Amino acid sequence: MVASTVGIDAMAFHGPECFVDMVELATARGVDPGKYTKGLGQLEMAVATPCEDTVSLATVAARKCLTAFDIDPQEIGTLIVGTETGVDHSKPVAVYVHELLGLPSNCRTFETKHACYGAMAGLTSAIDWIVAGRARGKKALIVASDIARYGAGTPGEPTQGAGAVAMVVSETPRLLALDKEVFGDYTRQVMDFWRPLYSKYAFTDGHYSIDCYLDALSGAWSDAAAKAGSHDRVAMRNLNACFYHVPFVKMARKAHHRHWEVELGRSISREDEEHAMKVTDSFEVLVSPWLTLNAIVGNIYTGSLFLALIDYLRAADESREGGNISMFSYGSGCGAAFCFAKVVEGASRHAGRLDPSTALAARRKLAIAEYEEILAAYDAADANDGEHLSPARWKLRGDLFYIGTRNHIRQYYP
Ligand code: HMG
After folding, report:
1. Max Cα separation, the chain?
2. How confident is the model over 306-326, as pLDDT tens digits?
3. What SS3 class is residue 367?
């Protein structure tokens, strides 16, 4: 049977236990703090210790998601982990997560990679699986899990972060019904950001990457508008919220500006005060209020877009139900998608289930020296096979950790 509805039924975020304060990081780098806090819009940055890897972050996010929304692991028929910081060139993060969650052996399991677009690729694949009628009542679990690292002292350093967002996709979504028909796609080979197999750190042509992101937004939106057949179906005036990939908070402002321009069909200069003001007002209403989590977590690559969505849904009241939203996913290199969804009736009843504020408030602030020690330890983490990595060294309190390799096999505790 072909599903009439498909969408996001459950969501959860899990991030590292430590963070740095952006004013302290700016001061340590000899930079005016305003550049990080206002220029980029970042207030705090999540820092993963060597014991918190893509697998552990993904698994804990998925456990939180299933538990909070009362979903039995046996209900999961597809598991997809979107990541660009995988732990093995061959073995997918997803298969570790599959074991750690105790998912059934007939659960189709794989990893998707296309920079930050990886989880959106997973989401669309899950939608196709359900719409094609192959789910047979089962649900798909999509996890976006990443650790963004550019290295100390690089221009990208203040745009690092780490964390995972897990979402369950089903025919009976409790949160968001996705528009199955209108998906705008965009692909172009560009060298804006990449991480060669031999490097733990990303290389990026930062300013060019911003241009690539914005061009991809124009391309994906235009494709969505063409597929919609009428601008009305995708028009911003019919939207209650717009979500973008958020490598840093200011980028969402630039994205919203471009979104306006493509819809208007021309560019908006500073001199065009009337439109410039409208864009600013609309940003404050449709985008800015739900960037508070991104501002204190940083770039989590595949999960950044969905973290903003969690911020929106965790504060949803009845007035948000039935409202339309847009989502733009960008992955460097590059691939992008523009899609639309509706908040389902009753979604506000689940708001408390996806609120990560308690865990975020319990994070430990690192002094910059300790953060730098973590970066150095991360560099060495996989180098010594048989060495035991101790969660206690970083005062971690969680319940799943990566503790090093033995015979080149990754070990998790407990
Ligand atoms: P930069 O050159 O260090 O910073 O690099 P800047 O000089 O461009 O300044 C940033 C902003 O701060 C500017 O605002 C300044 O004016 C402002 P804007 O002109 O852009 O509106 N500023 C100040 N504001 C207030 N007080 C001050 C002050 N000083 C300056 N005192 C850059 C910034 C983002 C390029 C860098 O951090 C970087 O390379 N980051 C990594 C790449 C990145 O995040 N790219 C984003 C688009 S690509 C993408 O999103 C994909 C990605 O997530 C990866 C994937 O897909 O896998 C990255």
Report:
1. 65
2. 999 999 999 999 999 999 999
3. coil
Find the residues whose C-beta lies inside 6 A of ligand 1.
32, 34-35, 38-40, 84, 115-116, 155-156, 158-159, 192-193, 204, 206-207, 209-210, 213, 245, 247-248, 250-251, 299, 301, 330-332
pLDDT tens, 105-136? Answer: 999 999 999 999 999 999 999 999 999 999 99
The first and second tokens of residue 226, run together, are: 């063409």
- Tokens describing residue 336: 């992008």
Pairing of strands 176-187, 335-343: antiparallel
**Domains of the chain by start residue, with CATH:** 7-413 (3.40.47.10)
- Answer yes or no: is pLDDT of 1 > 70: no
Quick: pLDDT tens for 56-67.
999 999 999 999
Q: For residue 210, which phi and psi values (nearest 5 degrees)?
A: -65, -45
Q: Could you give the CA distance from residue 397 to residue 383 in angstroms, rounded to a whole number?
A: 25
Q: Token pair for residue 368? A: 């910059």
The residues carrying an active-site annotation are 84, 116, 245
